[in-house]
UniProtKB/TrEMBL annotation:
Gene3D superfamilies: 3.40.50.980
Domain AMP-dependent synthetase/ligase: 45-187
Signal peptide region: none
Name this polypeptide is given: AMP-dependent synthetase/ligase domain-containing protein
Native source species: Cladophialophora psammophila CBS 110553
A molecular function (GO) term: CoA-ligase activity
Length: 202
């Protein structure tokens, strides 16, 4: 397996409560892609599974929600992920947490004061080598396994769906277009959800 660049797991730990779903989830992934990073979406409320993902992905930072902070903290501490590398996706109800943790909103505010990044330029065929998502599957018969999804994988799937969809829509009516309502949760991070739910409507 090739060496994996810096990863930001997004701990969108869902327990059947819509309060745990975060609209920032994909925005964080796209921001990371903008700086040639990759995202490893997490969907587990078990500390040992999150610990395995942090450890095997060599994660550098963790985004989570305040309701799942105990699980995230426990897993992150095992992997020696410093407190300033644990980011909350939304302002916590307990404001004392802000003394040691940043929020996504604070990061966006800080970023607004910085100069623009240079335009991203991929080299030839870099999209086939550059990993966009590191998704974990399985776990019922052992530790979940990581699946590397490159930018090229994502783009080709989107183009296939777009071309297929356009033929069907044009046959239905000229210039017919659907309006899509994207319901959360976006994860578990199956490739079909990343493509068909999260990206095709954009």
């Amino acid at each position: 397996m090739p060496e994996i660049p810096d990863i930001i797991p997004i701990s969108d730990l869902l327990r059947g409560n819509s309060d745990h779903n975060q609209i920032d989830t994909l925005t964080i992934s796209w921001a990371l892609h903008r700086v040639i990073g990759l995202s490893s979406p997490a969907n587990s409320n078990k500390e040992e599974e999150l610990d395995h993902q942090l450890r095997s992905s060599k994660a550098q930072i963790l985004f989570t929600v305040s309701s799942d902070l105990p699980t995230a903290r426990e897993a992150a501490s095992k992997d020696r992920l410093a407190e300033d590398r644990r980011i909350l996706c939304q302002p916590p109800s307990d404001e004392s947490l802000l003394e040691s943790l940043q929020t996504v909103s604070q990061m966006i505010g800080g970023g607004c004061t910085l100069s623009e990044l240079d335009e991203l330029q991929f080299t030839k065929k870099q999209d086939t080598r550059q990993i966009a998502f590191l998704c974990y599957y399985g776990g019922s018969l052992g530790a979940p396994q990581a699946i590397m999804i490159s930018h090229y994988n994502e783009i080709v799937n989107l183009r296939q769906l777009h071309l297929f969809d356009r033929l069907m829509k044009d046959a239905f009516a000229p210039h017919y277009r659907d309006n899509a309502l994207c319901l959360m949760p976006f994860f578990p991070p199956h490739i079909c959800r990343l493509v068909a739910v999260c990206h095709i409507s954009i």
